[in-house]
Write a structure and sequence with these properties.
Catalytic activity: 5-phospho-beta-D-ribosylamine + glycine + ATP = N(1)-(5-phospho-beta-D-ribosyl)glycinamide + ADP + phosphate + H(+)
CATH topology of the largest domain: D-amino Acid Aminotransferase, Chain A, domain 1
Pfam families: GARS_A, GARS_C, GARS_N
Number of domains: 4
Number of strands: 22
CATH superfamily of the largest domain: ATP-grasp fold, B domain
EC number: 6.3.4.13
Mean pLDDT: 96
Number of helices: 12
Structural class: alpha+beta
CATH class of the largest domain: Alpha Beta
Family: Belongs to the GARS family.
Helix content: 25-40%
GO molecular function: ATP binding; metal ion binding; phosphoribosylamine-glycine ligase activity
Shape: globular
Strand order of the largest sheet: 3-2-1-4-5
Distance between the termini: 41 Å
């Protein structure tokens, strides 16, 4: 079977790596891919936004299944375009992807169908938002409505901070049209959790839980990033809590979308806060999360292709996922300055020295035959162990073997577990 993976980050490297273990996969293409992915798949120089070119490539190369990694092409309607051309593609439709593409849409669904989440107000006018922020409680969370690569969420402690964020979004328009609507949300307290589920339009099959480290600095300080590390399973989620998440959040939102005339197929991601009142939704994503995918997929024993086919065919109720009885820890190496401005093009040394962990490339490319940095998050080191402590020790021991100018990574991933 020929498979095309759309994307070029650590998540896609993890997907390609898992697919390469399937006996039924004969050829993997990845568009655009990266330096690490190129060892397992043929990289194709088409960006994720070029939906028409991706479709033509899939038709010309007789691709059996396309798997979409990032959110942008999903929100832009890649699934609808491929299906119109008779191509099999794994991911939600344009309408279904609105669960991630518009936080306001997601919040409205949750409010209407009583899915647990924080209280909120949405604004499309600057002065109205400013008036509310003068009178509201603090701290609050301010979010850009649309896609912002994980960087459109701000916790603000007072009105001065709130006005700065509002100016960034609605006046300076740092997130472009994604900031046309802003959501002001109550601050939720507890432990964060990430839950992915395969959804076939009807049935929901939850995966192993994970925990993401979003802040750039140790002790969860500094601005939000696309993720500086992750661990799986989430140490704060037991079977009872996972069951509660399935019954009160995952199944109800799939049902809610169906009632609204939207059939959801693909991976549904719930970013949650485990509060004293129970799990509450922070956000939904319409795809595999990053870097949680890098810790979840190495623990999956079931053939990923088999699960994807069952999802597309509406046969998830016949499937049970099998998992390794291990812990996984991912530490992300980033470029100096990330998530702000950073330089690219630095040679990465020592990759071949890593023997005990996976290196999932994110922002890497080839230059003059050498692997160089090409993004803010450069790679993730993923180690497995019988305990978090063991996996953590392996991950940090292995990451020290790799270097590039300005390398930065948090030193506290999985600490204390």
């Amino acid at each position: 079977m020929k498979v095309l993976v759309v994307g070029g980050g650590g998540r896609e490297h993890a997907i390609v790596h898992k697919l390469s273990q399937s006996d039924r996969v004969e050829k993997i293409y990845c568009a655009p891919g990266n330096a690490g992915i190129s060892k397992l798949a043929e990289c194709v120089n088409i960006s994720v936004e070029e939906i028409e070119k991706l479709k033509e490539f899939a038709l010309q190369n007789k691709i059996d299944i396309t798997i979409v990694g990032p959110e942008l092409p999903l929100v832009e309607g890649i699934v609808d375009e491929f299906e119109k051309a008779g191509l099999k593609i794994f991911g939600p439709s344009k309408k279904a992807a609105m669960i991630e593409g518009s936080k306001y849409f997601a919040k409205q669904i949750m409010a209407k169908y009583e899915i647990p989440t924080g209280r909120f107000k949405a604004f499309d006018r600057y002065q109205e938002a400013l008036k509310f922020l003068k009178e509201t409680w603090y701290p609050v969370v301010i979010k850009a409505d649309g896609l912002a690569q994980g960087k459109g969420v701000f916790i603000v402690r007072d009105f001065i901070e709130a006005k700065e964020v509002l100016d960034l979004m609605m006046k300076k328009r740092v997130f472009g049209p994604s900031g046309d609507i802003v959501i002001v949300e109550e601050m939720l307290y507890g432990k964060e959790a990430s839950i992915f589920a395969f959804v076939d339009g009807e049935n929901v099959l939850a995966m192993m839980s994970a925990m993401d480290y979003k802040k750039v600095y140790e002790k969860d300080e500094g601005p939000n990033t696309g993720g500086m590390g992750s661990i799986a399973p989430n140490p704060h989620i037991d079977k009872k809590t996972l069951n509660e998440i399935e019954e009160k959040i995952l199944k109800p939102v799939v049902y809610a979308l169906k009632k609204e005339g939207v059939v959801y197929k693909g991976v549904l991601y719930a970013g949650l806060m485990l509060t004293k009142e129970g799990p509450k939704v922070l956000e939904f994503n319409a795809r595999f999360g990053d870097p949680e995918t890098e810790v979840i997929l190495p623990l999956l024993k079931t053939d990923l292709l088999e699960v994807i086919e069952a999802t597309l065919e509406g046969k998830l109720k016949n499937l049970k996922l099998e998992w390794e009885d291990k812990k996984a820890v991912c530490v992300i190496a980033a470029s100096k300055g990330y998530p702000g401005e950073y330089k690219k093009g630095f040679e990465i040394r020592g990759l071949e020295e890593v023997k005990e962990a996976f290196v999932y490339h994110a922002g890497t490319s080839f230059k003059d035959g050498k692997i160089v940095t090409s993004g803010g998050r450069v790679f993730g080191i993923v180690a497995l162990g019988d305990s978090y402590k063991e996996a953590r020790e392996i991950a940090y021991r292995e990451i020290e073997k790799i270097s590039f100018e300005g390398i930065y990574y948090r030193k506290d991933i999985a600490a204390g577990y």
